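Human:
If only I could read C-alpha coordinates as easily as an amino acid sequence. I am handing you a single protein, as its sequence and its fold in C-alpha coordinate form. I hope you can help me see how the letters and the C-alpha coordinates relate. Thank you; the sequence and its C-alpha coordinates follow:
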Amino acid sequence: VNRDGHSMRTAIGVNGALPVAPIYADQGDTLYLHVHNSLNKTTSIHAHGILQTGSNFMDGAAMVTQCGIPPGDSFTYQVVLNQTGTFWIHGHDHDELADGLRAPLIIRDAAPPYQYDGEYVLAFEDWYTAMFDERMDETLDPTKPFPPPPSFPYALINGVNANYTETMRFAADSVYRVRLVNMATTEWFKFSMPGHEMHVIEADGVYSDPFLTDGLTIAPGQRYSVLVRAHASDRLNYQYLVEIYASFIPRLAGLNPRYHAGLIEYQKDAPLVGSDKEELLDQLPEDVPLAWNWDIELKALSRQPVLPVTRQIEIVIGGALFSDGITRDLINNVSYVPPKVPTLYSALSLGDLAYNASLYGPNSNVIVIDHMEYVELLIQNPSRLPHPIHLHMTTFQVVEYGPASDDVIISQGATPPKIPAPVRSFDRWPMERDTIVVPPMQYAKVRFHAQDGFVAYGHCHLQVHLRMGMAFTLVVAPDVMQKTMTIPPSMYELCRKQGIPITGNAAGNPGADMSVLPQEPFIVSH
Protein backbone atom coordinates (compact mmCIF):
# COMPACT_ATOMS: atom_id res chain seq x y z
CA VAL A 1 0.00 0.00 0.00
CA ASN A 2 0.95 3.64 -0.39
CA ARG A 3 -0.56 5.38 2.64
CA ASP A 4 1.71 8.38 2.88
CA GLY A 5 1.71 9.40 -0.78
CA HIS A 6 5.44 8.69 -1.07
CA SER A 7 6.24 4.98 -0.92
CA MET A 8 4.81 1.48 -1.26
CA ARG A 9 5.23 -0.95 1.62
CA THR A 10 3.64 -4.02 3.15
CA ALA A 11 1.02 -3.31 5.81
CA ILE A 12 -1.71 -5.02 7.81
CA GLY A 13 -5.33 -4.36 6.88
CA VAL A 14 -8.75 -5.68 7.87
CA ASN A 15 -11.29 -7.08 5.43
CA GLY A 16 -9.07 -6.10 2.52
CA ALA A 17 -8.93 -2.44 3.52
CA LEU A 18 -6.58 0.03 5.18
CA PRO A 19 -7.09 2.18 7.18
CA VAL A 20 -9.10 -0.03 9.49
CA ALA A 21 -12.60 1.42 9.74
CA PRO A 22 -13.52 3.24 12.97
CA ILE A 23 -15.92 1.46 15.32
CA TYR A 24 -18.91 3.36 16.69
CA ALA A 25 -21.06 1.92 19.49
CA ASP A 26 -23.39 3.01 22.26
CA GLN A 27 -22.89 2.66 25.99
CA GLY A 28 -24.32 -0.68 27.08
CA ASP A 29 -23.64 -2.39 23.75
CA THR A 30 -21.68 -5.62 23.52
CA LEU A 31 -19.00 -5.43 20.86
CA TYR A 32 -18.24 -8.64 18.99
CA LEU A 33 -14.93 -8.58 17.16
CA HIS A 34 -14.72 -11.58 14.83
CA VAL A 35 -11.00 -11.96 14.13
CA HIS A 36 -9.70 -14.30 11.44
CA ASN A 37 -5.91 -14.35 11.31
CA SER A 38 -4.62 -14.36 7.74
CA LEU A 39 -1.12 -13.32 8.81
CA ASN A 40 1.87 -15.64 9.04
CA LYS A 41 2.21 -15.06 12.81
CA THR A 42 -0.08 -14.96 15.82
CA THR A 43 -2.24 -11.92 16.48
CA SER A 44 -4.46 -10.47 19.21
CA ILE A 45 -6.63 -7.37 19.63
CA HIS A 46 -6.63 -5.00 22.61
CA ALA A 47 -9.40 -2.46 23.25
CA HIS A 48 -7.26 0.36 24.63
CA GLY A 49 -8.88 1.97 27.67
CA ILE A 50 -11.71 -0.53 28.04
CA LEU A 51 -11.75 -1.81 31.62
CA GLN A 52 -13.00 -5.33 30.84
CA THR A 53 -14.62 -5.67 34.26
CA GLY A 54 -15.41 -9.34 34.72
CA SER A 55 -13.82 -10.24 31.38
CA ASN A 56 -10.08 -9.78 31.98
CA PHE A 57 -9.46 -12.66 29.55
CA MET A 58 -10.76 -10.45 26.68
CA ASP A 59 -8.12 -7.76 27.25
CA GLY A 60 -6.10 -8.99 24.27
CA ALA A 61 -2.51 -8.71 25.54
CA ALA A 62 -0.78 -11.78 24.10
CA MET A 63 0.88 -14.04 26.71
CA VAL A 64 -0.45 -11.80 29.47
CA THR A 65 -4.18 -12.52 29.33
CA GLN A 66 -4.38 -14.94 26.39
CA CYS A 67 -2.47 -16.92 23.81
CA GLY A 68 -2.25 -15.27 20.42
CA ILE A 69 -4.63 -16.34 17.65
CA PRO A 70 -2.67 -18.76 15.43
CA PRO A 71 -2.30 -18.15 11.67
CA GLY A 72 -5.34 -19.41 9.81
CA ASP A 73 -7.44 -19.53 12.97
CA SER A 74 -10.31 -17.40 14.23
CA PHE A 75 -11.51 -16.02 17.53
CA THR A 76 -14.35 -13.72 18.61
CA TYR A 77 -13.78 -11.08 21.26
CA GLN A 78 -16.86 -10.18 23.27
CA VAL A 79 -16.47 -6.77 24.90
CA VAL A 80 -19.16 -5.22 27.09
CA LEU A 81 -19.05 -1.45 26.65
CA ASN A 82 -20.03 0.04 30.00
CA GLN A 83 -17.93 3.17 29.48
CA THR A 84 -18.36 6.14 27.19
CA GLY A 85 -15.78 8.23 25.43
CA THR A 86 -12.88 8.04 23.02
CA PHE A 87 -10.90 4.79 22.80
CA TRP A 88 -9.15 2.73 20.15
CA ILE A 89 -8.40 -0.87 19.27
CA HIS A 90 -5.06 -2.22 18.12
CA GLY A 91 -3.01 -5.34 17.70
CA HIS A 92 -1.20 -6.45 20.85
CA ASP A 93 1.01 -9.21 19.49
CA HIS A 94 4.16 -8.93 17.36
CA ASP A 95 3.89 -5.11 17.32
CA GLU A 96 1.22 -5.34 14.63
CA LEU A 97 -0.32 -1.98 15.48
CA ALA A 98 2.79 -0.33 14.01
CA ASP A 99 2.03 -1.86 10.61
CA GLY A 100 -1.59 -0.70 10.43
CA LEU A 101 -3.67 -2.81 12.84
CA ARG A 102 -5.31 0.08 14.72
CA ALA A 103 -8.60 1.99 14.63
CA PRO A 104 -10.63 4.44 16.75
CA LEU A 105 -13.36 3.09 19.02
CA ILE A 106 -16.03 5.67 19.87
CA ILE A 107 -18.60 4.83 22.55
CA ARG A 108 -21.50 7.28 22.54
CA ASP A 109 -23.24 8.45 25.70
CA ALA A 110 -27.04 8.32 25.69
CA ALA A 111 -27.14 11.33 28.03
CA PRO A 112 -23.83 13.19 27.66
CA PRO A 113 -23.09 15.84 30.28
CA TYR A 114 -22.18 18.30 27.53
CA GLN A 115 -24.43 19.17 24.60
CA TYR A 116 -23.11 19.62 21.08
CA ASP A 117 -24.50 19.73 17.55
CA GLY A 118 -21.97 17.52 15.78
CA GLU A 119 -18.60 15.87 16.16
CA TYR A 120 -15.41 15.05 14.33
CA VAL A 121 -12.86 12.32 15.03
CA LEU A 122 -9.20 12.88 14.15
CA ALA A 123 -7.11 9.73 14.47
CA PHE A 124 -3.37 10.41 14.27
CA GLU A 125 -0.81 7.87 13.08
CA ASP A 126 2.92 7.90 12.36
CA TRP A 127 3.77 5.98 9.20
CA TYR A 128 7.27 4.74 8.44
CA THR A 129 8.56 3.61 5.06
CA ALA A 130 9.83 0.34 6.57
CA MET A 131 7.92 -2.30 8.49
CA PHE A 132 8.38 -2.35 12.24
CA ASP A 133 10.39 -5.60 12.32
CA GLU A 134 12.88 -4.16 9.83
CA ARG A 135 13.46 -1.14 12.05
CA MET A 136 13.74 -3.28 15.19
CA ASP A 137 16.26 -5.61 13.55
CA GLU A 138 18.56 -2.61 13.20
CA THR A 139 17.86 -1.42 16.75
CA LEU A 140 18.60 -4.81 18.32
CA ASP A 141 21.61 -5.71 16.16
CA PRO A 142 24.61 -5.80 18.56
CA THR A 143 27.01 -5.28 15.65
CA LYS A 144 25.53 -1.87 14.79
CA PRO A 145 25.71 1.43 16.67
CA PHE A 146 23.00 2.13 19.25
CA PRO A 147 20.77 4.00 18.94
CA PRO A 148 20.38 3.64 15.16
CA PRO A 149 20.03 6.72 12.94
CA PRO A 150 16.63 8.38 13.44
CA SER A 151 13.70 7.70 11.13
CA PHE A 152 11.25 10.42 10.17
CA PRO A 153 7.71 9.12 9.66
CA TYR A 154 4.89 10.79 7.80
CA ALA A 155 1.75 11.92 9.59
CA LEU A 156 -1.56 10.27 8.77
CA ILE A 157 -4.90 11.71 9.85
CA ASN A 158 -7.85 9.35 9.56
CA GLY A 159 -5.68 7.05 7.50
CA VAL A 160 -4.45 9.45 4.80
CA ASN A 161 -1.47 11.76 4.40
CA ALA A 162 -2.03 14.71 6.72
CA ASN A 163 -1.57 17.10 3.78
CA TYR A 164 -4.97 15.92 2.57
CA THR A 165 -6.80 15.88 5.87
CA GLU A 166 -10.57 16.17 5.86
CA THR A 167 -12.52 19.41 6.09
CA MET A 168 -14.44 20.28 9.25
CA ARG A 169 -17.70 21.92 8.23
CA PHE A 170 -19.05 24.32 10.84
CA ALA A 171 -22.49 25.91 10.97
CA ALA A 172 -22.55 29.35 12.54
CA ASP A 173 -23.07 29.43 16.33
CA SER A 174 -23.11 25.62 16.62
CA VAL A 175 -21.08 23.57 19.10
CA TYR A 176 -18.83 20.70 18.00
CA ARG A 177 -17.02 17.94 19.83
CA VAL A 178 -13.62 17.14 18.32
CA ARG A 179 -12.20 13.79 19.41
CA LEU A 180 -8.42 13.40 19.14
CA VAL A 181 -6.80 9.94 19.20
CA ASN A 182 -3.05 9.42 19.01
CA MET A 183 -2.60 5.91 17.59
CA ALA A 184 1.09 6.51 16.79
CA THR A 185 3.90 4.22 17.83
CA THR A 186 6.57 6.85 18.45
CA GLU A 187 5.48 10.39 17.63
CA TRP A 188 3.60 13.04 19.55
CA PHE A 189 0.98 15.24 17.88
CA LYS A 190 0.10 18.87 18.58
CA PHE A 191 -3.34 20.24 17.72
CA SER A 192 -4.68 23.77 17.65
CA MET A 193 -7.64 25.69 16.15
CA PRO A 194 -6.56 29.33 15.82
CA GLY A 195 -9.45 31.76 15.99
CA HIS A 196 -11.57 29.36 18.09
CA GLU A 197 -11.73 28.55 21.79
CA MET A 198 -11.21 24.92 22.76
CA HIS A 199 -12.43 23.48 26.05
CA VAL A 200 -11.09 20.05 27.05
CA ILE A 201 -13.96 17.86 28.32
CA GLU A 202 -12.45 14.36 28.17
CA ALA A 203 -9.12 12.63 28.64
CA ASP A 204 -8.80 8.90 27.93
CA GLY A 205 -12.53 8.17 28.19
CA VAL A 206 -13.04 10.17 31.41
CA TYR A 207 -15.08 13.39 31.46
CA SER A 208 -13.49 16.52 32.93
CA ASP A 209 -14.70 19.96 33.88
CA PRO A 210 -14.40 22.24 30.82
CA PHE A 211 -10.81 23.44 30.60
CA LEU A 212 -9.87 26.27 28.24
CA THR A 213 -6.69 25.65 26.25
CA ASP A 214 -4.99 27.05 23.16
CA GLY A 215 -3.71 23.68 22.05
CA LEU A 216 -2.98 20.10 23.01
CA THR A 217 0.10 17.91 22.95
CA ILE A 218 -1.00 14.29 22.64
CA ALA A 219 1.29 11.35 23.34
CA PRO A 220 0.97 7.86 21.83
CA GLY A 221 -2.00 6.07 23.40
CA GLN A 222 -3.67 9.23 24.71
CA ARG A 223 -7.05 10.68 23.72
CA TYR A 224 -8.83 13.98 24.30
CA SER A 225 -12.14 15.58 23.41
CA VAL A 226 -12.56 19.33 23.06
CA LEU A 227 -15.72 21.40 22.67
CA VAL A 228 -15.58 24.24 20.14
CA ARG A 229 -18.27 26.85 19.55
CA ALA A 230 -18.46 28.08 15.97
CA HIS A 231 -18.50 31.81 15.30
CA ALA A 232 -21.83 33.60 14.98
CA SER A 233 -20.84 34.74 11.49
CA ASP A 234 -20.19 32.36 8.61
CA ARG A 235 -18.39 34.88 6.41
CA LEU A 236 -14.88 33.50 7.01
CA ASN A 237 -13.18 30.10 6.93
CA TYR A 238 -10.38 29.05 9.28
CA GLN A 239 -7.73 26.36 9.72
CA TYR A 240 -6.95 23.71 12.27
CA LEU A 241 -3.28 22.92 12.73
CA VAL A 242 -1.44 19.66 13.37
CA GLU A 243 2.21 18.97 14.08
CA ILE A 244 3.92 15.57 14.28
CA TYR A 245 7.17 15.52 16.23
CA ALA A 246 9.42 13.65 18.63
CA SER A 247 11.37 15.78 21.10
CA PHE A 248 14.06 13.10 21.47
CA ILE A 249 14.89 13.03 17.74
CA PRO A 250 17.03 15.80 16.22
CA ARG A 251 15.08 18.69 14.69
CA LEU A 252 15.48 18.76 10.93
CA ALA A 253 13.54 21.13 8.72
CA GLY A 254 10.75 19.37 6.85
CA LEU A 255 11.27 16.08 8.71
CA ASN A 256 11.00 16.68 12.47
CA PRO A 257 8.66 18.33 13.05
CA ARG A 258 6.27 18.25 10.12
CA TYR A 259 3.42 20.76 10.00
CA HIS A 260 -0.05 20.34 8.53
CA ALA A 261 -3.26 22.35 8.23
CA GLY A 262 -6.87 21.35 7.65
CA LEU A 263 -9.84 23.51 6.68
CA ILE A 264 -12.63 24.69 9.00
CA GLU A 265 -15.28 25.59 6.43
CA TYR A 266 -18.22 27.87 7.21
CA GLN A 267 -18.99 28.62 3.54
CA LYS A 268 -17.46 26.98 0.52
CA ASP A 269 -16.09 30.14 -1.06
CA ALA A 270 -15.58 32.28 2.05
CA PRO A 271 -12.20 34.01 2.51
CA LEU A 272 -9.66 32.03 4.52
CA VAL A 273 -8.16 33.37 7.73
CA GLY A 274 -4.70 31.95 7.28
CA SER A 275 -2.35 30.97 10.08
CA ASP A 276 1.39 30.60 10.27
CA LYS A 277 1.24 26.99 11.32
CA GLU A 278 4.93 26.67 12.12
CA GLU A 279 4.98 29.77 14.32
CA LEU A 280 1.75 28.89 16.15
CA LEU A 281 2.54 25.22 16.70
CA ASP A 282 6.10 25.94 17.81
CA GLN A 283 4.62 28.11 20.56
CA LEU A 284 2.93 25.04 22.07
CA PRO A 285 5.37 23.54 24.58
CA GLU A 286 6.61 20.03 23.86
CA ASP A 287 6.97 18.92 27.47
CA VAL A 288 3.42 19.54 28.73
CA PRO A 289 0.15 17.88 27.67
CA LEU A 290 -1.90 21.08 27.26
CA ALA A 291 -0.60 24.41 26.02
CA TRP A 292 1.08 26.04 29.01
CA ASN A 293 -0.86 23.71 31.32
CA TRP A 294 -0.56 20.15 32.63
CA ASP A 295 -3.18 17.41 32.57
CA ILE A 296 -2.97 17.41 36.38
CA GLU A 297 -4.84 20.73 36.23
CA LEU A 298 -7.88 18.97 34.77
CA LYS A 299 -10.60 18.10 37.26
CA ALA A 300 -12.65 14.91 36.89
CA LEU A 301 -16.31 15.69 36.33
CA SER A 302 -17.20 12.78 38.65
CA ARG A 303 -15.86 14.79 41.60
CA GLN A 304 -14.28 11.74 43.20
CA PRO A 305 -11.98 12.62 46.10
CA VAL A 306 -8.35 11.64 45.99
CA LEU A 307 -7.83 8.02 47.01
CA PRO A 308 -5.93 7.14 50.17
CA VAL A 309 -2.76 5.06 49.93
CA THR A 310 -2.21 1.72 51.66
CA ARG A 311 0.70 0.68 49.44
CA GLN A 312 3.15 2.61 47.30
CA ILE A 313 4.90 0.76 44.48
CA GLU A 314 7.94 2.30 42.80
CA ILE A 315 8.26 1.83 39.05
CA VAL A 316 11.71 2.86 37.79
CA ILE A 317 12.20 3.32 34.05
CA GLY A 318 15.65 2.52 32.70
CA GLY A 319 17.85 1.03 30.04
CA ALA A 320 21.00 -1.08 30.00
CA LEU A 321 23.54 -2.91 27.89
CA PHE A 322 23.16 -6.69 28.30
CA SER A 323 25.66 -9.52 28.16
CA ASP A 324 24.67 -10.43 24.59
CA GLY A 325 25.65 -6.97 23.37
CA ILE A 326 22.04 -5.76 22.98
CA THR A 327 20.71 -2.62 24.65
CA ARG A 328 17.31 -3.16 26.24
CA ASP A 329 14.82 -1.12 28.22
CA LEU A 330 13.92 -1.81 31.82
CA ILE A 331 11.31 -1.48 34.52
CA ASN A 332 12.85 -1.93 37.99
CA ASN A 333 16.01 -3.27 36.36
CA VAL A 334 14.10 -6.05 34.57
CA SER A 335 13.64 -6.25 30.79
CA TYR A 336 10.27 -7.89 30.10
CA VAL A 337 10.22 -11.30 28.39
CA PRO A 338 6.88 -13.13 27.92
CA PRO A 339 6.38 -16.26 30.04
CA LYS A 340 5.64 -19.70 28.62
CA VAL A 341 2.12 -19.58 30.13
CA PRO A 342 -0.12 -16.49 29.92
CA THR A 343 0.20 -14.72 33.27
CA LEU A 344 -3.56 -14.72 33.83
CA TYR A 345 -3.69 -18.50 33.40
CA SER A 346 -0.88 -18.94 35.92
CA ALA A 347 -2.72 -16.74 38.43
CA LEU A 348 -5.83 -18.88 38.04
CA SER A 349 -4.08 -22.24 38.36
CA LEU A 350 -1.40 -21.79 41.03
CA GLY A 351 -3.74 -21.78 44.02
CA ASP A 352 -2.18 -20.19 47.11
CA LEU A 353 1.14 -19.98 45.27
CA ALA A 354 -0.38 -17.34 42.98
CA TYR A 355 0.77 -14.73 45.51
CA ASN A 356 4.41 -15.71 44.91
CA ALA A 357 5.56 -13.18 42.28
CA SER A 358 8.66 -15.21 41.39
CA LEU A 359 6.54 -18.03 39.95
CA TYR A 360 5.39 -15.78 37.11
CA GLY A 361 8.95 -15.75 35.82
CA PRO A 362 12.03 -13.60 36.46
CA ASN A 363 11.34 -11.47 33.39
CA SER A 364 7.55 -11.15 33.56
CA ASN A 365 8.12 -8.32 36.03
CA VAL A 366 5.11 -9.25 38.16
CA ILE A 367 3.93 -7.27 41.17
CA VAL A 368 1.21 -8.98 43.22
CA ILE A 369 -1.39 -6.75 44.84
CA ASP A 370 -3.91 -7.67 47.55
CA HIS A 371 -7.64 -7.27 47.06
CA MET A 372 -8.98 -3.80 47.96
CA GLU A 373 -5.56 -2.22 48.36
CA TYR A 374 -5.29 1.49 47.60
CA VAL A 375 -2.24 1.60 45.37
CA GLU A 376 -0.01 4.51 44.46
CA LEU A 377 2.41 3.95 41.60
CA LEU A 378 5.46 6.19 41.90
CA ILE A 379 6.78 6.13 38.33
CA GLN A 380 10.35 7.44 38.20
CA ASN A 381 11.81 8.46 34.83
CA PRO A 382 15.55 9.09 35.27
CA SER A 383 16.09 9.25 31.49
CA ARG A 384 16.17 12.12 29.01
CA LEU A 385 13.21 10.79 27.04
CA PRO A 386 9.51 11.19 27.88
CA HIS A 387 7.61 7.92 28.33
CA PRO A 388 3.83 7.46 27.87
CA ILE A 389 2.96 4.72 30.36
CA HIS A 390 -0.32 2.87 29.76
CA LEU A 391 -1.97 0.61 32.33
CA HIS A 392 -4.51 -1.96 31.17
CA MET A 393 -7.70 -2.82 33.07
CA THR A 394 -8.02 0.34 35.16
CA THR A 395 -7.93 4.10 35.11
CA PHE A 396 -5.89 5.94 37.70
CA GLN A 397 -5.98 9.30 39.40
CA VAL A 398 -3.19 11.69 38.36
CA VAL A 399 -1.95 12.97 41.71
CA GLU A 400 1.48 14.56 41.32
CA TYR A 401 4.47 15.29 39.11
CA GLY A 402 7.91 16.19 40.45
CA PRO A 403 11.68 15.75 40.07
CA ALA A 404 13.00 12.22 39.85
CA SER A 405 15.04 11.11 42.83
CA ASP A 406 18.77 11.90 42.52
CA ASP A 407 19.54 8.39 43.83
CA VAL A 408 17.39 6.83 41.12
CA ILE A 409 18.95 9.00 38.42
CA ILE A 410 22.47 8.11 39.52
CA SER A 411 21.58 4.39 39.79
CA GLN A 412 20.64 4.45 36.10
CA GLY A 413 23.98 5.94 35.09
CA ALA A 414 22.68 9.50 34.54
CA THR A 415 23.48 12.86 36.09
CA PRO A 416 20.80 14.77 38.03
CA PRO A 417 19.79 18.08 36.40
CA LYS A 418 21.16 21.27 37.95
CA ILE A 419 17.64 22.71 38.18
CA PRO A 420 15.13 20.02 39.22
CA ALA A 421 11.57 20.12 37.96
CA PRO A 422 8.96 21.71 40.23
CA VAL A 423 6.35 19.67 42.09
CA ARG A 424 2.87 19.88 40.57
CA SER A 425 -0.13 18.50 42.45
CA PHE A 426 -3.82 18.04 41.72
CA ASP A 427 -6.40 20.56 42.87
CA ARG A 428 -9.50 19.25 44.68
CA TRP A 429 -10.70 16.51 42.29
CA PRO A 430 -7.89 14.59 40.58
CA MET A 431 -8.28 13.74 36.93
CA GLU A 432 -8.40 10.08 35.90
CA ARG A 433 -6.93 8.57 32.76
CA ASP A 434 -5.20 5.40 31.56
CA THR A 435 -2.07 6.73 29.79
CA ILE A 436 0.29 9.24 31.41
CA VAL A 437 3.44 10.87 30.11
CA VAL A 438 6.28 10.80 32.62
CA PRO A 439 8.57 13.65 31.55
CA PRO A 440 12.37 13.33 31.45
CA MET A 441 14.05 13.42 34.84
CA GLN A 442 10.69 13.53 36.61
CA TYR A 443 8.29 11.28 38.47
CA ALA A 444 4.54 10.87 38.29
CA LYS A 445 2.30 9.59 41.06
CA VAL A 446 -0.95 7.85 40.12
CA ARG A 447 -3.47 6.00 42.29
CA PHE A 448 -6.10 3.31 41.84
CA HIS A 449 -8.24 1.07 44.02
CA ALA A 450 -7.79 -2.69 43.54
CA GLN A 451 -11.51 -3.48 43.77
CA ASP A 452 -11.49 -6.48 41.44
CA GLY A 453 -9.21 -9.37 40.66
CA PHE A 454 -7.35 -8.96 37.37
CA VAL A 455 -4.03 -9.14 35.57
CA ALA A 456 -2.98 -5.79 34.12
CA TYR A 457 -0.17 -5.16 31.67
CA GLY A 458 1.67 -1.86 32.19
CA HIS A 459 4.06 -0.58 29.57
CA CYS A 460 5.52 2.30 27.63
CA HIS A 461 3.39 3.02 24.56
CA LEU A 462 6.40 3.85 22.44
CA GLN A 463 6.39 0.58 20.54
CA VAL A 464 10.16 0.38 20.28
CA HIS A 465 10.45 0.63 24.05
CA LEU A 466 7.81 -2.04 24.61
CA ARG A 467 9.64 -4.37 22.22
CA MET A 468 12.86 -3.62 24.12
CA GLY A 469 11.28 -4.71 27.41
CA MET A 470 9.80 -1.61 29.10
CA ALA A 471 6.85 -3.39 30.69
CA PHE A 472 5.55 -4.81 33.95
CA THR A 473 2.56 -6.86 35.09
CA LEU A 474 0.19 -6.33 37.99
CA VAL A 475 -1.49 -9.46 39.38
CA VAL A 476 -4.34 -8.15 41.51
CA ALA A 477 -6.14 -10.40 44.02
CA PRO A 478 -5.45 -13.80 42.45
CA ASP A 479 -7.56 -15.47 45.14
CA VAL A 480 -10.57 -13.42 44.01
CA MET A 481 -9.88 -14.31 40.38
CA GLN A 482 -9.75 -17.99 41.21
CA LYS A 483 -13.22 -17.81 42.78
CA THR A 484 -14.93 -15.61 40.20
CA MET A 485 -13.30 -16.02 36.80
CA THR A 486 -13.76 -18.78 34.23
CA ILE A 487 -11.76 -18.74 30.99
CA PRO A 488 -13.87 -19.61 27.91
CA PRO A 489 -12.84 -22.99 26.48
CA SER A 490 -12.24 -21.37 23.07
CA MET A 491 -9.43 -19.32 24.59
CA TYR A 492 -7.72 -22.37 26.07
CA GLU A 493 -8.02 -23.98 22.65
CA LEU A 494 -5.90 -21.18 21.11
CA CYS A 495 -3.10 -22.28 23.44
CA ARG A 496 -3.52 -26.01 22.89
CA LYS A 497 -3.24 -25.59 19.12
CA GLN A 498 0.21 -24.09 19.66
CA GLY A 499 1.38 -26.47 22.37
CA ILE A 500 1.29 -23.72 25.01
CA PRO A 501 0.47 -24.88 28.57
CA ILE A 502 -2.66 -23.41 30.15
CA THR A 503 -1.78 -24.11 33.78
CA GLY A 504 1.22 -23.82 36.02
CA ASN A 505 3.96 -21.29 36.56
CA ALA A 506 5.86 -19.25 33.96
CA ALA A 507 7.81 -22.35 32.95
CA GLY A 508 4.64 -24.36 32.41
CA ASN A 509 5.35 -26.52 35.45
CA PRO A 510 3.21 -27.17 38.53
CA GLY A 511 4.04 -25.56 41.84
CA ALA A 512 7.44 -23.93 42.30
CA ASP A 513 9.32 -25.98 39.68
CA MET A 514 10.84 -23.33 37.39
CA SER A 515 13.09 -25.68 35.43
CA VAL A 516 13.31 -25.38 31.62
CA LEU A 517 13.09 -21.60 31.71
CA PRO A 518 15.98 -20.36 29.56
CA GLN A 519 18.71 -18.24 31.13
CA GLU A 520 18.21 -14.67 29.91
CA PRO A 521 21.13 -12.26 29.25
CA PHE A 522 22.17 -10.15 32.23
CA ILE A 523 22.86 -6.43 32.67
CA VAL A 524 26.45 -5.34 32.01
CA SER A 525 26.07 -1.58 32.42
CA HIS A 526 23.43 1.15 32.56
In short: The longest strand covers residues 311-322.
